[in-house]
Each structure stands twice: as C-alpha cells, then as structure tokens.
Design goal:
This protein has 141 residues and is mostly beta strands. It contains three helices and ten strands. It has a domain of 97 residues: SOS response associated peptidase-like (hypothetical protein yedk fold). The strands form two sheets. Strands 1, 2, 3, 6, 7, 8 and 9 form a seven-stranded mixed β-sheet that branches. A three-stranded antiparallel β-sheet has the order 4-5-10, with no helix packed on it. It is globular and about 60 Å long. The mean pLDDT is 89.
Length: 141
C-alpha cells in the first residue's frame, strides 16, 4: 500500500485535475490499482450523502495509477460506471466497486475489464444524507 495523490497532473490537461475516468470504451491492461473504502460521499445540490455497502462490508474502488513526473507525485484516478438504482436518484455515475473476492482478478489483469467494471446490482448500496445541522430528537425541561 502506498500514498498517492488523487487526480492527474493538471499541467497536461489545460489546468484541469481529473479525478475520475469513464470505463466505457477503455482498456486498462496495466497500472491497475485499488482504493480501499468503507464509504464514499456524493453531493446532490446542497445536500451531501454517505454511500456504504448495505451489508456494512468494506470494498475497493477500481482505479489506475500514474507514475510520479517532475514535482507531481504518484497519482491515481478512480474509474466510473453507470449508477445503480440506489444511486441513480442522486447522480448518473459512481466509482466502480471491486468486491473483496475480486481483488486479485482486478490486480493481475487476467480478467477483462468488462467483467469487473459493471454497474452494481440493486440493493447493494445504502445512501444516507449527511446532516450538516444537529437534529434535536428530544426536549429537556
């Protein structure tokens, strides 16, 4: 496990730092990596949401890494897929989820991307709003 910067070097993309890359129509025969996660956050307008696996398990996000270049460190970009039914209400895409049992399939590049970079089935993800203001649940007298 190493520490890496999230996003590509903006010097090579008109000043834009890309943090995601679409899976469709692409091949990732090398530089595959994984980002361990127990949750990820999304925004929809002013609201923020926490996304976890419905069973509470941790997972990985499929990613590709790029070597350090000049003063830009080793970096990675998360690969995205179409959103599953739970996520579709909030956004059209999300990071490609790699289950724990699929780790070596992704890393050893022996399984085609099309078999692993898929939209997760329904009822796999749990989406909960992150409340920014405390909610008072009872009154004290």
């Amino acid at each position: 496990m190493i520490e890496a910067a999230w996003g590509s070097d903006p010097r090579f993309s008109d000043g834009v730092r890309y943090e995601f890359i679409r899976s469709e129509g692409r091949s990732f025969p090398s530089n595959r990596c994984l980002v361990p996660a127990s949750e990820f956050h999304i925004r929809n307008g002013e609201k923020k949401f926490r996304v976890t696996m419905e069973d509470g398990n941790f997972f990985y996000l499929a990613a590709i890494w790029e070597p350090a270049m000049g003063d830009w460190p080793v970096s990675y970009r998360i690969i995205t897929v179409d959103a599953n039914p739970e996520m579709m209400r909030y956004q059209e895409r999300h990071g490609a989820i790699i289950q724990r049992r699929q780790v070596m399939q992704w890393l050893d590049c022996q399984v085609p991307e099309t078999d692993l970079l898929v939209t997760p089935p329904a009822h796999l993800l749990l989406v909960k709003e992150i409340l920014t203001k405390p909610v008072q649940t009872s009154l004290a007298f």
